[in-house]
Design brief:
The chain is an alpha+beta fold. It has one domain: Lipocalin (Beta Barrel). An eight-stranded antiparallel β-barrel has the order 1-3-4-5-6-7-8-9. A hairpin with a 6-residue loop joins strand 8 and strand 9. The N and C termini lie far apart (49 Å).
Length: 169
Amino acid sequence: MNRLSVHLRTALLLVGLALSWGGAIAQPALKDQIVGTWTYVAVDMIHPDGTRTPLYGPSPRGQASFDGNGRYVLMVARAGQARFASTDRTKGTPEENQAVVQGSIAHFGRYTVDEANKTITFHIETSTFPNWNRTEQERPFTVTGDEFTWRTPASTGGGVSEVVLKRAQ
């Protein structure tokens, strides 16, 4: 048997062993998979009939960051919001202020991951929507490669909202 044949057989044997062991290699914990910074791809309301409405427009802008110690911060806003007429943000018109409130959300606090149920719970400390302050919100989620998705039951009108993020580069 020549040298190339021996090397080829050895390589094939190693590949076969690696493939057979592949199922035994543990995936990183879900909590570890979400650590990092993510950018928003979509935030859609999915209606009971399956139609979708983008809650922050077709190209929402924002980031969500999750650290390894269980802390997070997230913020999303509608792209292309109109500038205020005033250069003083505290002097927005009622219409300008309404557009900002309806076109953005942010909150921060702690998070926990239930590996068995594949849920993330946001322990919200503070939010731009004060009704969420000091509340907990549980979301089923998936992480597939560089995509992180969670779903939220809609508070009104049925359906669910779906948040899709991609890992920041």
